[in-house]
Amino acid sequence: MTPPAPAPFLVLAADDPERLAAFYGALLGTDPLRGFSSSHWRLPWPGGGHLEIYAPSRQRPRPRAEGRLALCFSRPAGEAPPLQVLHDWLAVVLALGAVPVEPPRQEPFGAEAWLADPEGNRLLLLVSGG
Questions:
Q1: Are 42 and 33 in contact (CB under 8 A)?
Q2: Do the Cβ atoms of 125 and 89 come closer than 8 Å?
Q3: Residue 10: its pLDDT value, please?
Q4: So what's the pLDDT on residue 64?
Q5: Is 8 exposed, middle or buried (0-12, 13-18, 19+ CB in 10 A)?
Q6: Residue 3 CB partners (closer than 8 Å, separation 6+)
Q7: How far are the Cα atoms of 30, 31, 114 from residue 34, in angstroms, in the given order?
Q8: 129: helix, strand or coil
Q9: How far apart are the C-alpha atoms of 114 and 105, rounded to whole Å?
Q10: Residue 99 scores a pLDDT above 60
């Protein structure tokens, strides 16, 4: 008998987990839930699973490193030009505390903008269509 598949979730280490949970809660339109401790937060992930945000142990800190993995949030452009939808969305996300990494740009598949969340994790906003 095959064991059941594990529940999916993403984990982000954070210096200020509560602040980062508030950022992603606003971005996802959901309320962060306190996890196993005051330094652990959970957010329901669209499509199932959770985004887990926590402060690493001080005995074994998680070093910061830029990699090729990024969280991506996407939405359709609808009838509007994708770049305009992206600029409007970008203004909201920047007001939440994200930092631009690259300027927004039109691509053949839509419009995209690369950001860093308040803790410096890579984040991609993608507006499809066009």
A1: yes
A2: yes
A3: 85
A4: 67
A5: exposed
A6: none
A7: 13, 10, 29
A8: coil
A9: 9
A10: yes
Report the pLDDT averaged over residues 96-102: 96
Q: For residue range 25-84, what is the model confidence (pLDDT) as tens digits? A: 999 999 999 998 889 999 998 888 889 999 887 776 566 666 777 899 999 999 999 999
Cβ–Cβ under 8 Å, residues 44 and 50: yes
Provide the terminal-to-terminal Cα distance of the chain, rounded to the nearest Å. Answer: 47
Decide if pLDDT at 98 tops 60: yes
pTM, 2 dp:
0.82
The pairing of beta strand 99-100 with beta strand 71-76: unpaired
With tokens 């927004």, the residue in question is 104
Q: How much is the mean pLDDT over the chain?
A: 88
Return d(Cα 47, Cα 52) in angstroms, integer: 15
Q: Is 99 helix (H, G, I), strand (E, B) or coil?
A: strand
Structure token digits, residue 82 = 């994708």
**DSSP assignments along 29-71, one per residue:** TS--EE-SSTTEEEEEPTTSSEEEEEPPPSSS-------S--E
